[in-house]
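Practice problem: predict the structure.
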Amino acid sequence: MLPAAILWDMDGTLIDTEPYWMAAEIELVEAHGGVWTPQDAVAMIGSSMDVSAGLLQAAGVALDVAEIADALNTAVRAAVAAGIPWQPGAQEVLRALHSAGVPQALVTSSFGVLAAPFADAVGLFDVVVSGDTVTRPKPHPEPYLAAARALGVDVAACVAFEDSRSGLASAVASGARVVAVDSHVALDPPAGVSRASSLLHVDLDVIARIAAGETLHLRDAD
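Answer:
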C-alpha cells in the first residue's frame, strides 16, 4: 500500500538549487570584504535562514538577518526563474504519485518567496510548509509535523525525502519513514532510513515498500 502522503524537501532533493545558493553566498560575503569557500557553503546546506545569516555575519556580512534573507532569496529566485533545475527523476515520481492519488507536501527551509512560485509552477503539492511559516525550522521536527497536520494524516504513515543533515534530522524526529537522497552532502543516516543515490531509483513500488517498513539502499550500481 502507498503511504498516506509524501513529504518533500525542495532544495537539493527535487531541484538542484544548491549551486545558486552557494553562488549567492559567495557574492554576498565577498561584497563585504570577506571570504566564503565552497566548503563553507556545503557545510551550511539545509540550515535555517537564521543559522545561515549568523554564519554569513560571522564571515563579515554587515547586514541583519532580514537583509541577508532578502539578498539571498532575490538572487536564487532570479536564477530559478530562468528555468526549474529539476533533479533527475523528480518530475516523474511527482506525477506518478499525483496520478495515484497520493497527497504531497513541500517541506522546505526556503522562504515562501521561493517555495510558493515553485509550488505554483509544479501544481502538484497539496500543502506548502516554508521556513518562514514555522516557529522552529529544521532540524526541529515542526516543519514535517505541520505538513502532516495540514494534510490531515498521521506523520508515521508518511514517507519523507531529504538530502541534508539538518533536514534528515527533522524528518526522522517527526516519526515519518525517511529516504535520504544523496546530493551535495554525504549523509550518514541512522538505522531504518532508506537511501537513494537519485530519484531515478524511486517509483511507486519502491515507495510502497518503504511505507510498509522496508529499509532500502538504492544505488547507481544496483
